[in-house]
Structure formats: C-alpha cells, structure tokens
Amino acid sequence: MHTSNYKRVIVALRLNGATGRNELSGIFKFLERNAAWDLHVAQEADDLNDALTSASPPDGVIVGLLHTDKTLDLLARSAIPTVAIDIGADRFAGRTRSIAYVRTDDDGIGRLAGNYLLSLGNLRSIGFIPARVRRPWSQLRQRAFTARLVQQGRNVSVYSADSADMPSLSAWLAALPKPAGVLMAWDGLAPAVFAAARAASIRIPGQLAILGVDNDTFICDAMRPTLSSIRPDYEQCGLQAAKCLERLMRGIRRMRPIVRCPVRDIVERESTAPVAPATSLILRAIDFIVHNAASRITPTDVARQLGVSRRLLDLRFREFHSSSVADTIAAVRLEVLKTHLRETHLPIGRITANLGYRNSRSIKNFFKARVGMSMRAWRLVHAPNQPLQV
Asked: Which of 163, 263, 366, 381 has the fewest CB atoms nearer than 10 Å to its CB?
C-alpha cells in the first residue's frame, strides 16, 4: 500500500459503452470535491490483473464489467478495499471484509419497461430479448419485466439467446402477433434486432415497438428509426461506488451491504412512436370475426362492417397482421370448430353444418391439413370421455 496522502486507486470499467463512461463520470464528480486519489483507469482487464499481482498493489479498486474470471478470483482472495459494480456477491464467496457492492436497479428497469409497453395500449403481443451471454442483470430485468406483465394478465415471449443467428431472430420476430412490443436487455442488441426486423419485412414502429436499456446515444441515435431506451442512473452508480471505496479505505466498516442506484426515466424516440392508427382497424376487424365466427362471414362482410373497402382491409391485414382477412377468418372458425368438437356431444356432420360448412369433405380435408389428424381422431384425443359421435 502507499504511504502518501494520495491513495492509488484502480478503476476497471468498460468504457466502450454508455454504462462505463457514465459510471466513470460519477467517480470524477466525487473526486472534484472529496477525495485525494491517484486515479488510474485500466484499459484492459489484464491491466488490473497486473496491478493486483504487483509488488506495490493499489490502495483500492472499483471494478465493473471490465473483468475476467482471473480478475475476480484475484479480488476474492485479496484484502484490498474493493467496490464491485453490478457483479454478484457470489463471485466473491468467502470474502466478507473491505468489500462493497453497488447495483443498478434491474428490477426497477424491468417494471418500468413493462409499465411503458402496457401504456402503448394496443399491443397484441410482448417479447423480451435477453443478453446473448447469460448475465445476472439480464436475468433480473427479464424476471421483473415478465412478472409485471403477468400481473396484468399478459404473457411474455422470450427469445432464446442460444439462437443468435439472423434467421432465428427474424423468425421469432415474425411470429409475434402484430402490433408487438419488445424489450431488449440492453441497447447493444439493437443493430442485430433492427436488421432481423428488416429481413422479415417488419415495420418499426408500425408493427413492432422496440425499447432498449442504457440510453447509449451513440447506438440509439444511429438506429433507423431511432431507438427509445430506459436511462439508468449510471453516473449515480459511479458516485456511490467512489463514496463506498473512500469509506472502505478509511477503515469504516458499517455500510449497507448493497447500494442500489435508481432508474432515471425513459428517453422516447421513434422506435416506440404511437402505433399507426391503421392497427386499430385490424383489432376491430378481429373482434368482429371472433364474435361472428359461427356464421358464414366473408372478408366482404368484415369490410362492410368496418366501413372500408375490401382492398384497403386486405392491405392493412398484410401490413400489420402478416395474413389475409380470409386466412384469419378460416383460422378463427377452425378454433370454434375445435371448441364444438371438444365440448359438445353432437355428431361431426351436425357441427360442421351448424357452422355453415356446406361441403363436408372440403372441411374434413382442410382440418386434417391444418391440424395433422382427422376431426374424429382429434376428438378422441381432446375429448376422450365423450360418446363417440362421427
């Protein structure tokens, strides 16, 4: 350790993104009016490793995302006052002295994102894209985001981070019922997600509203359209980390075990602009189809009910719903047919006649092609206790 009045401190933060840069800004803000530090900013994880194993180790360390397993193992065995930013205490198992933890409020991020996407009002589906590599902060955001939406009776589709290739991501985005809203674990995923949406011909924000985390302006402003993003208070994380380290280096032991830093707000940009009014037309059309599926309605009936031309209705469906009006009617009627097969004792011929299917062979072929089995076989599987009716 050093005997001068200045404490030698190593800061290891990843500075190629908004997170680390803002945390460093918070540390500088603390130093402007408080501590006398000889501050060294590690450019690579190896720089910190070398400092920890040198004959003259630092008096204190602030470590964030710029670390390796070797770094964390060295710190776990060290007695050097250390503050870990957004690193779980499990990585320092067995170390109980001269260490403090500062964390971003990842639960708050997840809840804020859930409330925000719910506020958009007419989203038919909501998804979450985690970090490609399993990270605790990504998992915490996903958990809180999902819990908030489940509270409101909404399901969340989670993309499998193991499938990082463009076709898989495009297919997942295309399968979300539109309009959809998606939260990305962090802004760094935006280039890949936007490219996957373009590859699938998905319009942002018309069909897909996208929200990121970090408010990394370099990324957010470069996206087309620009990216809306949650702004955590990373500067406050850096400031709190500096305060904790100063106390540790002074030998003050009574400290909160974990200091949590709040979320500031959401910076709204083009990617979550209000979904085009045309989507309300689709929602009204689907509502009419669902409530009239038991009768022989046609796309023309739907257009007439909504007071628009058949051509415009077909255009809007293909833009926002990824299927035609006729296909949507057929899909909804198929679900009604399944309900009757499962919940009534009527013969199959009577059911199809009641639902307005005039050609029994045609509907039987259609059912088998869509479901993979005959109506009789499907009924045996899904309503095994019913009397056999064909």
From this structure: 381
